[in-house]
Amino acid sequence: MLMRLLLLLTATVLSAADWPMFRGVNGSGVAAVTKAPTEFGPTRNVVWKTALPFGHSSPVITGDLIFLTGAEGGERVDAGRGDKVVDQGGKLFTLCLDRKTGNILWRRQAPRPRIERYQKVNSPASPSAATDGTNVFVFFADYGIISYTKDGDERWSTPVGPFNNVNGHGSSPIVFGDLVILVCDQDSGSFLLALDKKTGRERWRVDRSEVTRSYVTPVIFTPKNGPAELIVPGAYQVTSYNAVTGEKLWWVRGFSWQPKSVAVIDGDTIFVHGYEGGGEAETPTETPTWAEALVLYDANKDGKIIQDEIDPKLQKSFYLLDLDSKGHLNTRDWEFYRARRSARNSLLAIQPNGRGDISQTAVRWRMQKFLPNVPSPLIYQGVLYLVKDGGIFTSLDPKTGTILKQGRLTGALDTYYSSPVAAAGKLYLFSQNGTATVLRAGAQWETITTVEMDEPIFATPAFVDNKMYLRTRGALYCFAGG
Q1: Three-class SS of residue 439?
Q2: 161-194 pLDDT, tens digit each
Q3: d(CA 413, CA 388)
């Protein structure tokens, strides 16, 4: 009864046409529109275009307001760890735009007490905002969570962190009932956090030390019986929590490490995937136990392994193994390294059927090939879709996992960070280099058009009022036309 009341209260504020969080209603990527632009481009069917500061967050919409975050100023410099960078001295902003005109109504600067490193293709403003229809909630890893009114008045701010995540954060907050919920997975000290959306005070915090870093945004699963569940993909397992109390309900093992996408829900089935390089092989890689590693590498016999002692092939990536950044490897570091080496990329169809470990009974089917790295799955009109780097697009039967059609997107053989979205019988995909592909939805999908934008694209578009709102590297576009 409580869960149903919370959902009802939320629904009274949010319109069915709103796009209240990353990838729309419950992260589904499905738009409630009857028309959607097919022919568009930098100068075609543009209602308006507004310049934005740098950032990868996706547009979030309620009524006539659009919320985004961005970073401005500062210099991106090499952090000295492979492809990691830091942003020296930049300012962090939350922006509110008028949906009809594209005018920036207000922008508010967030505190930035620290500057954390992140991957070159990431940004300090990657997490998307969330709204309950009245207020907006934003998260910056360099500070924490802030809530504003529609008019830009700060309601509260709650510091969270610092974080131990070598690639920077990518998880976005969500609103459920009277809670703002955020996944804070990292290489040490992972946790799940719920704040009171009225005050910003912590309502509950759940330890997730059994997982390392991820970049996921949770979604809500509502079973026929029982409480609403928070579905959280994580390193090596998918976990369900009571969405009101944070109680851990069930989990499924046999997952990849550092997942990045949201789960999608279809009736009583949860579709979730995880991918990381090295997880494609059929047979897991053999890795010595900690005891065996000490014999191999611990030259001074102090029970630890430092960078100079380890196999030269691993020395360059030692910081990835040293999860707590203490300058040496311990049992925990090594066991997570072994888990990473044995993890397999997987797309899972899960039908929850109990409590605790349901790994052996709840997985309806599993697929381990043709999986995306970052983009989330999409289920639309009874078909499940995936887009993999290289422009490999796949449609599947969600009941069996059978591949219905697979092919490469013409002219879009690229890397993908934006997740696919469905609108008015069409599918929309955007590559990193800015190539848009519009498909006719269906098991035997067909290409309608390919569009070249003039900037890279990392964000996922929003669709409201038969219009598309697309963020590129330096601007937000509004496109019309059906």
Answers
A1: strand
A2: 999 988 889 999 999 999 999 999 999 999 999 9
A3: 10
Asked if 39 and 45 touch (Cβ cutoff 8 Å), the reply is: yes
Name the pairing type of β-strands 135-140 and 144-149: antiparallel
- What six digits make up the tokens of 321? 């193994």
Distance CA 42, CA 40 (A): 7
Could you tell me how far CA 234 lies from the centroid of its own chain? 11
DSSP 147-159: EEETTS-EEEEEE
Return d(Cα 204, Cα 244) in angstroms, integer.
Answer: 9
**CA-to-CA distance for 190 and 7, rounded, in angstroms?**
28
Nearest to 347 by CA among 249, 413, 270: 270
Q: State the DSSP code for 26.
A: G
**Rounded Cα–Cα distance for residues 78 and 81 (Å):** 8
Query: With contact defined as beta carbons under 8 Å apart, do 333 and 253 qualify?
Result: no
Q: Which helix (H) or strand (E) holds 320?
A: helix 318-321
- Which among 259, 218, 241 is positioned nearest to 27, based on CA atoms? 218
Count other C-beta atoms under 10 Å from residue 31's C-beta: 24
Nearest Cα residue to 366 out of 252, 451, 463: 252
Backbone angles phi, psi at 287, to 5 degrees: -130, 135
d(CA 370, CA 387): 8
Residue-wise pLDDT for 253-294, tens only, equals 988 889 999 999 999 999 999 998 777 777 777 788 999 999
What is the edge-to-edge ordering of all strands in the sheet holding 475-479?
A: 46-51, 475-479, 467-471, 462-464
Residue 475, C-beta contacts closer than 8 angstroms, at least 6 positions apart: 49, 50, 51, 52, 455
Q: Which of 399, 431, 167 is nearest to 268 (CA)?
A: 399
Helix axes 290-297, 331-342, angle to 10 degrees: 110
Neighbours of 396 (CB within 10 A): 25
38 within 8 A of 481, measured Cβ to Cβ: yes
Q: What are the sequence ranges of the domains in the chain?
A: 2-283+343-479, 290-340
Residues 192-246: tens digit of each pLDDT: 999 999 999 999 999 999 999 999 999 999 999 899 999 999 999 999 999 999 9
Residues 239 and 255: beta-carbon distance below 8 Å:
no
What H or E segment, with its residue span, contains residue 93? strand 91-98
Distance CA 256, CA 340 (A): 8
Q: Residues 412-448, buried b or exposed e (16+ Cβ, 10 A)? A: bebbbbbbbbbbbebbbbbbbebbbbbbebbbebebe
Residue at 161: amino acid letter: G
- CATH top class, domain 2-283+343-479: mainly beta
Q: SS3 for 96?
A: strand
